[in-house]
Write a structure and sequence with these properties.
- Helix 1 packs across helix 11.
- It contains eleven helices and nine strands.
- The protein binds ligand BJW and zinc ion.
Length: 260
């Protein structure tokens, strides 16, 4: 694994445009359950068709709103981990060196932003934003659990969580930004995603097709593991700080050599 880390960090150091796609696995070490992990994932306990579709909300808005509000309140107790922090640090250094850097996430927890990442491209929306189905008004809900369910707007309409459910289109501007970043990057990282949900997983396919260097970080294999340049089996919170640390250390020693 050390050889893989060394090689990938060398390429990261040389990259001029970096794009990163993250999934629920990067937040697992912050205490937020993933979706598809066999024992601990949300879909091991719940049926997505009952909770994560517009039809489920239409059928039982009380249950769906309560479930999302409970998740919102749980995430409010969670802090970014060393994986989120390493990506925020990498972005800062990349931008200072005038490299392009785009962080694309499927996560709805906003822990990347809490770690200091900016301009995060949210493909599946956010647990914090709730939108009225009648008047379209959007509010950022940062307070305690709602007093009653379903959550209602001042206009009397129902508010739904601002996440993207199965069968719904992804926000078009966010997806276009993501596709453009992947098309123009020379180093792509996929971290903590099972790569099973489309069109987000299609971004990994796109990176492989354009022959960008692709690094996957995940404790488990995915459908892309055999096709990427490096597949590192490990946790985001362990591997990301190492890889970013190695790349920045190499960079610092190279600039010392240049100066002496
Ligand atoms: C660690 C770790 C550690 C653990 N460190 N790693 C093409 C083919 C087949 C189907 C489709 C297709 N195109 C579209 C579809 C349908 C559907 C889809 O993809 N279904 C598949 C499941 C089969 N897609 C859609 O419906 C999308 N919309 C769409 O396509 O619109 C066009 C359309 C409209 C109408 C008809 C047809 C097409 C919308 C997808 C929306 C996804 N929404 C969710 C819920 C969000 C709200 C909520 O939070 O409840 O988004 S589902 C859920 O999955 C969530 C996630 O963002 C998403 C991805 O999951 P992720 O992040 O990869 O998590 P996991 O749990 O799957 O994986 C975690 C990984 O972490 C694992 O690999 C672990 O090993 C790893 N891990 N610990 C690093 N410490
Ligand atoms: Zn309203």
């Amino acid at each position: 694994m050390n050889d893989l880390l060394e090689q990938a960090s060398q390429r990261l150091l040389a990259a001029k445009a970096i794009a990163v796609l993250t999934g629920a696995g990067i937040s697992a070490e912050s205490g937020i359950p993933t979706f598809r992990d066999a024992m601990t994932g949300l879909w091991a306990k719940y049926n997505p068709a009952d909770l994560a579709t517009p039809e489920a909300f239409a059928r039982d808005p009380e249950r769906v709103s309560r479930w999302y509000d409970e998740r919102r309140c749980r995430v409010a107790q969670c802090r970014p981990n060393s994986g989120h922090l390493a990506l925020a640090h990498l972005q800062q250094v990349a931008l200072a060196q005038e490299k392009a850097f785009t962080l694309i996430t499927q996560n709805v927890d906003r822990l990347h932003q809490a770690a200091g990442s900016s301009d995060v491209v949210e493909l599946h929306g956010s647990l914090w934003v709730w939108r009225c189905l009648e008047c379209g008004n959007e509010v950022e809900e940062r307070g305690p659990a709602f007093a009653s369910y379903p959550h209602a707007c001042a206009c009397g309409g129902l508010r739904r969580p601002g996440v993207v459910w199965f069968g719904e289109l992804l926000p078009s501007r966010a997806f276009a930004t993501a596709e453009k970043a992947v098309a123009s990057c020379d180093f792509f990282m996929s971290v903590g995603t099972s790569a099973e949900v489309y069109p987000a997983a299609g971004l990994i396919e796109q990176a492989i097709q354009v022959e960008t260097d692709v690094l996957e970080i995940n404790p488990e294999a995915t459908a892309f593991s055999n096709r990427v340049s490096w597949s590192i089996r490990g946790k985001g919170g362990d591997v990301l700080p190492q890889i970013v640390g190695m790349a920045l250390l190499d960079d610092a020693s190279a600039s010392e050599t240049r100066q002496s």
